[in-house]
Amino acid sequence: MISRECGVYQTTYEGDMALYPLPLARYASVAAVVVLALLPLVLDSHQMSLVNLMTLAAIGAIGLNILVGYTGQVSLGHGAFMMVGSYTAALVTLRLGLPFWVGLPAGGIVAALVGTFFGIPSLRIKGLYLAIATLAGQFIIEWTINHSTWISGGVQSTVYVPTPDFFGWPINSEYRRYYMVLPVAIIAYVAAMNLVRSRVGRAFIAVRDRDVAAEIIGVDIFRYKLLAFALSSFYAGVAGALWTYYLKIANYEHFTLATSVSYLAMIIIGGLGSVLGSVFGAVFITMLPIALVYVVEGGAALFGFEYASIANILANLRLIIFGGLIILFLAIEPEGLYRMWGNVRRYFRLWPFSY
Amino acid sequence: MAFFFDLFVNGLMTGMMYALVALGFVLIYKATSVVNFAQGELVMFGGYVAAALLSLYHLPLPVALPVLMGTMVLLGFLLERGVLRPLVGQQVISVVMVTIGLAQVLQGSAAMVWGAQTKNIALPIPLEPYVIWEIFISPINIVAAAVSGAFLVAFAWFFRKSRMGIAMRAVANDQQASMAVGINVRMVFAISWAIAGLAAAIGGVVWGSIVGVDTQLALVGLKVFPAVILGGLDSVPGAIVGGLIIGAVESVAAGYVDPYVGGGTKDFLPYVLMILALMIRPYGFFGREIIERV
After folding, report:
1. Do A129 and B291 touch (CB under 8 A)?
2. Distance CA A23, CA A15 (A)
3. Residue A322 contacts by C-beta under 8 Å, 6 or more apart in sequence?
4. What is the pTM of this model?
5. Residues of B in contact with A128 (CB under 8 A)
6. φ, ψ at A139 (rounded to 5°)
7. What ipTM did this prediction achieve?
């Protein structure tokens, strides 16, 4: 069960594409799901809220990685697509009185439509021009939602959503919210894993690696680029809708350009073109400011500074470390945490008899 | 009609200032094919340094300006050497993200060193606006537009006549060919970042004296994208024309449309223009037509 060959000895395509390359992987996946499902037994409410934030971020990051990491289309508008999903969910619940499990796919679908629309420029332009076009998309969506009284209640206002419930079971604590967020995240993860090893996923990778060659071997580039935008925005929309039900408000401030940038940072630090890497990145970027507070507070206590005197430093230090990490990862380990995880695993695979 | 001309003229003056920031941006793109998302932060950094030199250390303006320019040139130089050089030839997402990371670092460190509250750059310029044919023009805007104009002319001369400028144009055109004729391409890369730093220093003083210096100043960098896309990413005259168009359009539109939609047209319309430009004519008015369509 735990034995493993020391190389790649696949003789069939099925073997190469398998979701579980080894029986061990299957048991490990089941174990991971069980551990995740039982986390609330050991964590307190505050820790649980952190886990919830990570899980939410992971859904969005997986979506962005499908577009950027697998299809190679740079997008600076992910935050805006999440905003579309968030407001759609809020309106579906407020205006139509539908429960959250209708609001989630609704948010995803509307975001997918908007995302596909803003993906249309990708048919004519690519690379950094596309990055700039999606930047425009971010601003245009943000402005439109913010200025439509029908959607957001006017400039600078917040839409309040009632506590969601699941067939009369109110989702009103961090623990219960975890059981709202976790299943969605697991579905998102498994769907993405299956997507990238399927025909569609291979087409995405072909478009990323060499678009001309992909076209020649029969990949319809227009279709797959738009499909990548649609899928990625669907993930973003679901993540945004979950934010709405999680926080019980929809507010554009959660989905600005800074959000788009931090999701890009997640997938770069986690690993471009890796579903598990997106999760690593989401955990890392979510924990970064929290860990920083602990470290700086600890340091301040150690050297006897007043906390108030360092509060200003903290916010800026967060920016510096955030930016610095992006630069460092790009320069030193462009394949991100996923690669580091792989290195560790490879080391221990044959340990202690490595050659 | 006076209202329209008031908006239009003031918009053109703002446009000159956009053009100044856009220039640094175009310069870097032209020579090194890097889209610099941190240009706004460079301007902000220049503004912070200027504010610190003038108000904190009370240096007289003729001393402060050369010190500021020297600092920013050095900063540009260091950034190219330390941050951008390891990523030469990497994929687009890496280069875009590294400048975004750089933007965050610049923003955080400026606010950490000098504080987040808004600072003023006090220039010896009178405050009362001139009134010419019912158009209100404040002197500081005239000075800013004049400085931007002078700087743009100086650059035009530099690119056409000076040895270094011609070398930079050669590198922009074809890196390998310019290496073959003995141009030091790495030097050109470094110099173009240094000059972008210089443009950011001037931009920082000009913008900082009008809107005040804080981290919000960096947002001007995002406004520059529509200008450079309209004008063409790799064209200096394009940066000027694009800046003027964006300045005029947003000013006029804000004057007429803002009362009906509750403000913010300035943050919206330039990007709509940009999306249209990208769909119809992605290389802009003056850019080289080298867009691949796949």
Report:
1. yes
2. 12
3. A262, A265, A285, A288, B101, B104, B108
4. 0.89
5. 35, 92, 95-96
6. -70, -40
7. 0.85
